[in-house]
Amino acid sequence: MRIDKIHNRTLQRIAEKVFNGIPVDSADAHFMLATDDILELGSIAHHVKTMLHGDTVFYGVNMNLNYTNICELRCPLCAYSKDEGDEGAFILSLDDIERKVREGDSIGLDEVHIVGGLHPKLTIDYFTEMLKRIKRVNPDLFIVALTATEYDYYAKRNHLSLEEVFQKMMDSGLGALPGGGAEIFSPRVRNRIAPRKISGKQWLHVMKTAHRMGLKTNATMLYNHLENPVDIVDHLEQVRSLQNETGGFKTFVPLLYHDSGTKIPAKRKSTTGYDDVRLYATSRIYLNNIPHLKALWMYLGDKMAQVLLRFGVDDIGATYHNEKVVHAAGAKTPDYGSESFLRNLIEHAGMTPGRVKANYQAAKAGFLS
Q1: Which helix (H) or strand (E) holds 253?
Q2: Cα-atom radius of gyration of the chain, to the nearest Å?
Q3: Per the CB 3.0–4.6 Å rule, which of 94, 196, 204, 315 could disulfide with 58?
Q4: pLDDT at position 84, please?
Q5: Residue 344: is it exposed, middle or buried by C-beta count within 10 angstroms (0-12/13-18/19+)?
Q6: Does the model's pTM come out above 0.70?
Q7: Which pLDDT score is estimated for 117?
Q8: Mean pLDDT for each consecutive 10-residue tract of the chain (369 residues)?
């Protein structure tokens, strides 16, 4: 990065902080979220990415496993959840889950990504046996399972501490946590889009507990609904603050909100490229203590995700065989992507693809059609 090539004086000052390893502040974040000098902003974000990962962009080969869509919360932002007895409501048996995983394993997966609803009849034994069965199918499968919201709910329903639940899950094969359920921490917005979900403070507490147990996790932020720049910067600040304390976040994942079938209209039916670029670049620069920034191609579209590889992103997501949640809300992308498709996106952006599991350890080589 050539600071003298940056002509916007505020961005030049931000670049000097980045170059000297000084965290940017909230005022800097607000400026970056509003600037029209996106190429100069991008040069700073790309510098951060390159210093961390060179020209490598990571991707995964995985499957999604949604064990139930029955959920007590029925959040206004969610198009996927059902009440028990609704048409289309389901819960997978352990035999169903084992069969699905065997089918996935037969095509060469590295990872299983598990999330679902808050079902009042499920016990911790259901989840521990689920993980054990997955490991019996293939001990090398990496398991990313359950959001902070799910851990909080099932611990309370089963009269267990978070520590007890995490230990049981780790003993059964849990590898890491996804970052879902964070949405946006602002109580003002959260009380409208997900009024019955745990608070942002409690989400952070669950993640802090997971980190102290030795688990690495993602952190997410949902955008393009009712949030404003103040809410975004506050969210980033709270994530960075916990990371300073625990070091347990491995990846930050902004999630573009889709509103089809929900009760909360999107701010824009389709975000502008400027919106996405500014948000991702700002996240990369502000979250100087989180090693990875992920742009889920399935949420953004493959071309936008590809562009973001030049604006701080080092992870394009995964194959996501059988993804349901974002497609229930109207995502227009396919519900899975082949390995060759992901590698081509990365290579055509002039970068080197790296196939990894969710812990960023190298996965086996090979292609899926």
Answers
A1: strand 249-256
A2: 20
A3: 315
A4: 87
A5: middle
A6: yes
A7: 94
A8: 85 96 98 97 97 97 94 88 89 97 92 96 97 97 98 97 98 98 97 96 98 98 96 98 98 92 81 90 98 94 95 94 46 65 95 97 62
Top-level class of domain 57-355: alpha beta
Residue with tokens 């799910």: 150
Return d(Cα 285, Cα 246) in angstroms, integer. 19
Residues 326, 333: Cα–Cα separation, whole Å: 10
Contacts of 123 (CB under 8 A, 6+ apart): 158
Structural domain boundaries of the chain? 57-355
* pLDDT value of position 367: 38
pLDDT at 38 (0 to 100): 96
Contact 225, 272 (CB under 8 A): no
The string of DSSP letters for 43-72 reads: HHHHHHHHHHHTTEEEEE-EEEEE-B-B-S
Which strand (E) or helix (H) includes residue 19?
helix 9-19
- C-alpha distance from residue 150 to each of 145, 158, 160, 196, 354 (Å): 9, 12, 13, 13, 31
β-partners of residue 179 are none
Here the tokens at position 69 are 């869509």
Contacts for 140 with CB less than 8 Å, ≥ 6 apart: 110
